[in-house]
Amino acid sequence: MTPLDLDANATEPLRPEARAAVLRALDLGGNASSVHGGGRAARAIMEAARAEVARRAGVSPVDITFTSGGTEANALALHGLGTGRRLLVGATEHAAVRAAAPAAKTIPVRRDGTLDLDALAALLADGPPALVCAMAANNETGVRHPLDAIRALCTEHGALLHVDAVQAAREDIPRADSLALSAHKLGGPPGAGALVLAPGLHLPPLIAGGGQERGRRGGTEALPAIAGFGAAIGVPFDAARMAALRDAIEAGIRELAPEAVIAGTGAPRLPNTSLIILPGAAAETQVIALDLAGIRVSAGAACSSGKVARSHVLEAMGFGDLAGCGIRVSLPWNAPDDAPQRFLEAWAAMRNRLSSRARARAT
Ligand code: PLP
To answer: By alpha-carbon position, which residue is closest to atom 12 of ligand 1?
Structure first.
C-alpha cells in the first residue's frame, strides 16, 4: 500500500498547477534582470507571480519581495525592521524567527497556545518602541494567535508587527507591517517565499547583491520556484474538508484512548493540524512505529539533523514532560477520504503495542 502522507506542515505535496508553472518557467529559462527579449519574457512570468501573491495578500505588487523561502523572509524582516527596536518574540515561534532574534524578549503563551495578551501589553509598555513577532498559526499545533488584538496593542504602543504566516497562508493571509510566506507550505515548490511589507516601510537588505527586488534582496530570482509559488497561492484551499478529516481523527483518538491529549483544542486552529500527545510514549518512537506502518507524521518539531527534539511549543504551553510525547498530524490538500481510518488503525495498533511493552517492563 502506498504510504499515507500526513506531514503537510513539513511540506505540502506539489499542486499540479504549480508543477506545470515550474516546468514552463524552466523551459523558458532566462534572467529576469536581462534587458533583451529573453529577460523580458522571464520578468513577465515573475511579475505575474508577484501580482498573484499580492492579490492573495491584499497588497500592491511593489510590496512583495521574493526570497528563498519562509526562513529568509523572517530573517529579512527581523534584520531590516528590528534594528533600533526592542524585539518581542512569541514563545512558540518557529526556529526561523527565534534564531534571527537571539536577544529578543519572549512573550509567553497561555495553556491553549495563544499569545498572552496581558503579558504582551506589559512588555510593550515597558520600554522604547518594539518589533513584535507573532505567528499567524503554529506549525506544530495549528493554534492561531489573536492577531486583531495583537495588532491593536502594537498600534497603541507604536510597535511594528511582524507575522510569520507560513502555515496560515494556505487558508488566509492576515495584515501586518511585515509578513513571511513560503511556497512549499502551500503546494508550491521549495526555494521561493516572500516578505509582504506594509506600504511606506523602508527595508534595508540582508544581502545587497545586484539590487534585485527593489534593492531589498540581492541575487538572481529563482524564476521556476517563483512561477510555481504564484500558481500554488491562487489555488483555493478546501478548509471544510480538511477540518472534517481532522475532526474525524480527533474524535477517533478520544474514543480509543482517554489518556491521550490533543494540544490547543481550546483555541482557534488550522483545519489540517492535530498535535496528539500519548503520555509515556516518546515522540520519536511513535513516528518510527507509524512510519513502519506506512503513515508519515512528524514529531512536534523536526530539526535539520532528522533527530527529534523536545517540543519548545509544548513546553511553552506548560506540558512539562509530555512535551516529548507529541506527534503532529498535518493533512495535505490531497489527503484521501480514508485518511482518518487508516491513521486511526495504525495509531491504535501502535498504542496497544507500546502499552503492552510498558506493562511487560513493569512486571
Ligand atoms: N515558519 C514556519 C511557521 C514554518 O513552519 C516554517 C517551516 O517549517 C518556516 C517558517 C520556514 O519556512 P521555509 O522552510 O520556507 O524556510
So the answer is: 70
